[in-house]
User: Which sequence fits this backbone?
């Protein structure tokens, strides 16, 4: 029996028991050996960070006008800096989504948006739907609320509208479905115009709200993706955006666009979480983007990632083309999703891949249920074409060795 001395004074909340260490972080530890060609991470290329523009903007914010400098260092409003909220509304209008700046909540990364949404919309046992596979960080944000997360069958074009209908015809109405229409993390896939319309039609029919997560939408290679779901059903969509992939993730700046009826609750959750998003970062970013900087900067990221994607697709075809492996051909974003030949398990292959000099992330943790163990994710944005060539050759060697 436990004595008073040996008994821990701490008792965890039920929701803490539901939290898991990120499976990916554990895996990434293995992959961070020096000298490894790392395709496992989810980081943007640091070479795209606009250091000079950030430097100049910091200097401007802390410059001659002492009032601006002081305001940037003071507590700020929970909703976010008005200039940024207006910028978000103007950007969305260009994509056909006409919203008011009053609907924009600036968050500490869009990851915080996911956490606030979970707190506001999910109870223990609430039914909710995700794509298969889906963004692991969203699963991490949702699970502490202990919802019942169901994955809806999806293909290379995203979530399947007939499968969604089937899921909605049985059981209670889910609180929402979480969707990533553009260059999805982890698969790189994109929902085309027809798929978006089909999915929206089903959601409207059943009154199923949508959480649309779009951190990669600006990173298209040849043509802009179809209009966001928000533009198609403004009352039924909560939209998440981010500055992480177009400026820098270290700023921790994202946003939620909420229908007016939900906004006050999200704002209250935001106040409880951290009062407001760092005001200094918001002012610096407002300063950086005010003269159309992103219109010049983002195309340079697109060009770079486009070349890297081309290099990876070519290397995959050359090295793995005859092995029976399959992969996605993303038209934007940062990731390619590979399905290994039958009989291979990505997780089991990773140690040999690391020994051969390259690392990927096994796909299984990205599934809420029914994981496909043959899948893995490759990021193409932090390696040069030459590193990509060597990395895919190493992967092919391991795949061939395991298949023998
Ligand atoms: N959603 C998706 C799909 C992501 O891939 C990420 C970042 N990996 C986020 C949200 C969170 O991004 P941030 O908090 O940096 O805006």
Assistant:
């Amino acid at each position: 029996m436990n004595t008073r001395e040996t008994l821990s004074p701490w008792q965890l909340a039920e929701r803490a028991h539901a939290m898991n260490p990120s499976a990916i972080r554990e895996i990434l530890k293995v992959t961070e050996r020096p000298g490894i060609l790392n395709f496992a991470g989810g980081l943007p290329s640091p070479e795209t960070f606009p250091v000079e523009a950030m430097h100049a903007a910091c200097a401007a914010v802390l410059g001659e006008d002492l009032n601006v400098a002081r305001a940037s260092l003071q507590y700020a409003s929970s909703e976010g800096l008005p200039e940024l909220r207006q910028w978000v509304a103007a950007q969305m209008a260009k994509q056909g989504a006409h919203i008011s700046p009053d609907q924009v909540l600036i968050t500490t990364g869009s990851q915080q948006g996911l956490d606030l949404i979970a707190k506001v919309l999910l109870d223990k046992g609430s039914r909710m739907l995700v794509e298969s596979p889906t963004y692991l960080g969203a699963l991490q944000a949702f699970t502490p609320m202990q919802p019942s997360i169901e994955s809806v069958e999806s293909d290379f074009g995203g979530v399947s509208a007939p499968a969604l209908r089937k899921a909605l015809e049985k059981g209670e109405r889910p609180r929402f479905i979480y969707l990533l229409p553009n260059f999805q993390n982890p698969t790189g896939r994109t929902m085309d115009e027809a798929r978006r319309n089909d999915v929206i039609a089903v959601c409207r029919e059943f009154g199923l709200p949508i959480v649309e997560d779009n951190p990669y939408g600006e990173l298209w290679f040849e043509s802009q993706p179809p209009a966001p779901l928000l533009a198609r059903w403004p009352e039924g969509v909560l939209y998440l955006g981010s500055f992480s992939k177009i400026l820098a993730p270290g700023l921790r700046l994202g946003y939620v666009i909420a229908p007016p009826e939900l906004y006050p609750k999200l704002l209250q959750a935001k106040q409880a979480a951290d009062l407001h998003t760092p005001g200094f970062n918001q002012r610096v970013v407002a300063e950086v983007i005010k003269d159309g900087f992103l219109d010049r900067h983002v195309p340079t990221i697109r060009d770079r990632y486009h070349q890297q994607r081309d290099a990876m697709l070519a290397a995959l075809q050359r090295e793995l083309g005859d092995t029976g492996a399959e992969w996605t051909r993303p038209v934007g974003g940062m990731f390619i999703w590979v399905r290994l030949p039958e009989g291979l398990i990505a997780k089991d292959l990773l140690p040999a891949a690391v020994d051969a000099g390259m690392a990927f992330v096994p796909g299984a943790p990205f599934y809420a249920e029914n994981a496909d163990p043959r899948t893995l994710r490759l990021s193409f944005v932090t390696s040069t074409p030459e590193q990509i060539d060597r990395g895919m050759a190493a992967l092919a060697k391991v795949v061939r060795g395991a298949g023998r």
Remarks:
- The domain at 76-290 is CATH 3.40.640.10 (Aspartate Aminotransferase; domain 2).
- The chain has a mean pLDDT of 95.
